[in-house]
Amino acid sequence: MCLSSIFNFNMKRFILKCAGFLLATLLIYPLVLVFWGKVAPEKIVSNLINTPLLGFTAKKLAEVKHVSRPDILFLGSSHAYRSFDPRIFRQSGYTTFNLGTSQQTATITHWLASRYLHRVNPGLVVYVVDGVIVSSSEVESAVDVIQNDSVGLDMVRLIQDVNHIKVLNAGLYHFAWDILPLETSHMRQKKRNVEKYISAGYSIYLKSSLKNKLTKSINKFDLSNKNVDSFKKTLALLKQHHIPYVLITTPFTRAYAVDHNTALNFPFDEYGSYTDFNARLVLEDSLHFYDAHHLNQAGVVVFNKHFIQWLSENGCGPSERPFQD
Amino acid sequence: MLFNTLDFAVFLPVVFGIYWLLSGRLYWQNLCIVISSLVFYGWWDWRFLFLLIFSTLVDYLVGIKLNSKADDAVRKYWLWLSIGVNLGLLGFFKYQHFFVDNFVTAFRLFGFTLDVRALQYVLPVGISFYTFQTMSYSIDVYRRKLLPAENFFSFLAYVSFFPQLVAGPIERATHLLPQFEKERTFSYSLAAQGMRQILWGLFKKMVIADNCAALADPIFAEYMQLPGSTLLLGAFFFAIQIYGDFSGYSDIAIGTARLFGFELMQNFAFPYFSRDVAEFWRRWHISLTSWFKDYVYIPLGGSRVNRAHIIRNVLVVFLLSGFWHGPNWQYIAWGGWHALLFVPLIWNGNHRQYMAPVASGKWMPSLRETMQVLSTFLLVCIGWVFFRSVTLSNAFDYLRIIASPSLLEFPKLEKEAAAYTQIILIVLFFAVEWWGREGQFALARLQTWPGTFRRWAVYLLLVSLIGLFMKSEDVPFIYFQF
User: Fold this and answer.
1) What angle do CA B99, B103, B108 make, to 5 degrees?
2) How many CA atoms does the CB half-sphere of A281 hold within 13 Å?
3) Residue A300 in 3-state DSSP?
4) pLDDT tens track for B345-358
5) What's the rounded Cα separation, in Å, for the pair A260 and A130?
6) Which of A144, B86, B276, B431 has its CA 20 to 30 A from that of A291?
7) What ipTM score was computed for the predicted complex, to two decimals?
8) What does the alpha-carbon distance between residue A283 and residue A302 come to, in Å, rounded to a whole number?
9) What is d(CA B454, CA B466) in angstroms, rounded to the nearest whole number?
10) B351 is catalytic
């Protein structure tokens, strides 16, 4: 029996209509997202996120495209982008760039590293590791990166990797916004007075009020296989590019540090040189933190001086540049 | 395999393509259905395929024996063999835990301690559905309402047909089996209607049911700390969840079957627009209700016996219906609650007064109809509290708090914005259901709309709502656990 007799007129009509509808959906759905992003009241909870997270990801990702060969590149979550002040490093002769983003998990780190590492080509990567990077859901962080970075084919890989409707919507929304003749940012404009951006990827948290709790309990970090795999892939990528790296954990308040280390059962030290600065540096909870796990500016100053000292002790001082070609 | 997953989105078009390529070759088409159904079922746990095939084989052989024997006593023996095997499987996998636990508890009440432990088994998905389906086949062959299946593969295809294998509708052999034994030709209008029904089912499941689950679950989990008004809202969200979930599944199942040229029975007929509980039960899980009616209620004498026996029959059917859902006292209480509501109607002969859809042919219901629909819905919601609660005492506590003065407080919700968003979606959902309440499913009326553009606009709206409001996590269908 030949195909034409099986696929009679009715069947052909059905298949063509289904294909036509699929095509129409692919074209119109992104426009619906753009419309929704414009008109939907903020209070309506939907799978389209167009309110920016903290951390100035858009500014950072615009800036990173012009950065070349800094001495140090920081990777990680808010523990990375809130803990290293480039001005302090500059005083000691280092050039740095911070590619940390909010709630950045290892999957997102790997994607960012794949996208930017060859272009930035740093002398050393300081990868800030903790429970967040190997356990959290990467949805919020992926949305943040997709919404704020330039559209590219590799975004499809990230969308496929994370496999979440919010991430898919973020990608389609950004894509549609880019090809439509629409001015201004596609992100909802939100005036925030809580943080200030410092060039080279650093973000200072300005509100250090009593509302920010200095305690936060963690019971357990549930390791995500996907993030653990991505973590290994990132390290492999660094080795492939012959970029030396160190793994570090930034200081936390005392109680949080104990909780964190009890809740996290992951051997970072098996994957490279690992230093937990909670064991090296004693800070005052009330003086040096704005919440349980983020340093305030006073804490950043103390920690950065200590960190620079530690770099020199380990043969990574600016004059030595052991990590340089 | 779940209907609302990417796996199924790939599986369905592949099977559809192969199936229609075999057009005109009945045996091969049935074989295609058997293989794809086994893959569909085995995706969850391949070990239980043997159970499914065993149950099918027993009933297939019993059917042949029933037809070949003239002696009623021998025929009865074969029938009881089929019923025994099916109920035995069900009892072993689903109910032995319940019986053992209650047996031990009962002994403890009399001061004895028994060291007996129930065997821990995973409940095979769909066992309550396919055992009922095969039992109905044997009973119908025994009653000589049906000739036995001639071909094992068509019978296996009937039992294992993947769209309705794991959560119904529980099809009667008299309706579905003949469809496997005659040649199918592709019908554009049937397939298009099927796609429409699948889309509506996905919307019900992914947008309405799953989001209601996210709101109802924390309320039922923390009910002791919440006011009555919140608990009432929790019962409301669960009522919508279970309807969206189960009727959504049925819509996808019926729609999928239509793509392959099959017509399955309607399983839900807008039950929340019922004016009394009797009407509700003619519209809710129709395939199970009619199964119990045909194979339990009528053999017990139905309504043609004295009043005391009618009440007994109603009680038996509702309690069994509750017990069918699972081995715990909450489901039995849920059945009992509905029996309590049903008995006065049948006692007064009012149980068949509402046969046509409410406000048939009108845009809006009258004030009386509105009050009837709302009060029936409220009574049904009370029943859902038993169904959803973890224990029977939790259910009574939950209802006690609803009946307390805290019912007048403003509801406390953990996810307030999500709740308001969901209420808007529920209003939209019921508006569409109301508009389409005289059809087989809410969007069936679209078939009569002229022009492609308007119809496609509705489909695109639904796809957009699914994309914007669906829950991204795979939430299993509630009825998979039964």
Assistant:
1) 150
2) 26
3) helix
4) 988 888 888 888 98
5) 8
6) A144
7) 0.81
8) 8
9) 19
10) no
The span from the first CA to the last CA of chain A, in angstroms, equals 68
Smallest Cα distance from B199 to chain A, Å: 12
Interval B100-129: pLDDT, tens: 777 777 777 777 776 666 556 666 778 888
Output the pTM of the full model: 0.86
Each residue's pLDDT tens digit, B292-336: 999 999 999 888 888 888 889 999 999 999 998 888 899 999 999
| CA-based nearest residue to A55, from A95, A91, A93, A108 | A108
Taking the C-alpha atoms of residue A299 and residue A216, their distance in angstroms, rounded to an integer, is 18
A274 touches B: beta carbon within 8 Å: no
- Residue among A9, A44, A160 with most chain B CBs within 10 A, to mutate: A44
Cα dihedral A209, A215, A217, A218 sign: positive
Residue B415 touches partner A, C-beta closer than 8 Å: yes
Q: Which are the contacts of A121, defined by CB distance < 8 A and separation ≥ 6?
A: A68, A69, A241, A243
Residue B86 has pLDDT above 50, yes or no: yes
**B371 CB neighbour count, 10 Å cutoff:** 12
Left if phi > 0, otherwise alpha if psi is -120 to 50, otherwise beta: which for B341? alpha
The Cα–Cα gap between A105 and A248 comes to 15
Residue pLDDT, tens place only, B436-453: 999 999 999 988 888 888
Question: Is residue A8 within 8 angstroms of chain B, CB to CB?
Answer: yes
Euclidean distance between CA atoms A53 and A40, whole angstroms: 18
For B195, name the nearest residue in chain A, comparing CA atoms only: A18
